[in-house]
Amino acid sequence: MNNETNLNRSRVEGLLIRSISLIRHRNLSNEQLLQQAWEEIQRKNLGIYPWHKYRLCRTAFELLLDAIEENRLVTLGLPRTRQEVLDYLETRKPTIKPLSSQLEEVQNILQVANAKLDEINNLVYPNQSFNFDTLYAEVKRLKVQDLTSQISLKKQELEQLINTAKERLTRAEIFIFEEIFRKHSRILQTNNNSNVERLNNNNSNVDSNVERLNELKEILSETLNQEELQTLLNKQTEIFNLEKHLNNLQ
Q1: Domain boundary among 65, 91, 117
Q2: Mean pLDDT of all residues belonging to the chain
Q3: How far apart (Å, rounded) are the C-alpha atoms in residues 152 and 242?
Q4: Same domain, yes or no, for 159 and 229?
Q5: What is the DSSP string of 75-122?
Q6: What is the model's pLDDT at position 117?
């Protein structure tokens, strides 16, 4: 073989090694590798992932066409003529065309997603090129800042509503009222979602903590209706979830 053919042969082998499992074929000779790849390109069931491997195989055989034309690789069991390879590749077109369209759609989706990331990056860093790690860190910092502000405001709002409700309660009722929030906080801390869900639905089949909480709520029902009290507890739950989100970011 001349130098050009030898160069193509090296490129071909690299492509074929990437298109079939290197672990399974690393002990094959160069000639066996070419034979195995030719068999694989004919039997491969194409999908998005195999399609990438098929393209590597096809590129490899396109590089071999000149050598095939000169009958230099007939002994390897490869096609005897350039036209034989082209005819076979032509038979795969009905399968390849829809796969190519799918791949193009995926590439378009990625292109749109990248464009949106660039837009976000330009808002945050107008004079810097896109860097995912830097953008992620800044978005995270802003989210932490936003959550911190939200939590502070919602705590102030809940405190004002609690103080307003307390004005209608006796000293004994205030103790029960505060105990309700302490009990509810402990339930939230256990992160027992089933208990919280049963609590909100006032289901009678509840564990002792939730059952005790409902008893306390019932005691205050004449002064504070259930809907009003549940609104306050929901705000406490909202603050708990915001704090949990904030802790996960830090």
Answers
A1: 91
A2: 74
A3: 10
A4: yes
A5: GGT--SSHHHHHHHHHHTHHHHHHHHHHHHHHHHHHHHHHHHHHHHHH
A6: 84
Output the pTM of the full model. 0.53
CA 19 to CA 37: how far, in whole Å?
8
Taking the CA atoms of 142, 144, 150 and 156 in sequence, report the sign of the dihedral they define: negative
What is the residue whose two structure tokens read 């009222």?
177
Last residue of a domain, one of 91, 120, 148: 91
Note the pLDDT of residue 204.
46
pLDDT digits (tens, 9 = 90+) for 194-232: 545 555 554 444 467 778 888 888 888 888 888 888 999
Q: How many Cβ atoms from other residues are within 10 Å of residue 110's Cβ? A: 10
Together in a domain, 11 and 69: yes
Residues 6 or more apart in contact with residue 120 via CB below 8 angstroms? 135, 139
Give the number of domains in the chain.
2
pLDDT at residue 91 above 90? no
Q: Are residues 191 and 82 in the same domain?
A: no
* Closest of 91, 87, 37 to residue 59, by C-alpha: 37
What is the domain range of residue 29?
3-91
Tokens of 199: 């609590």
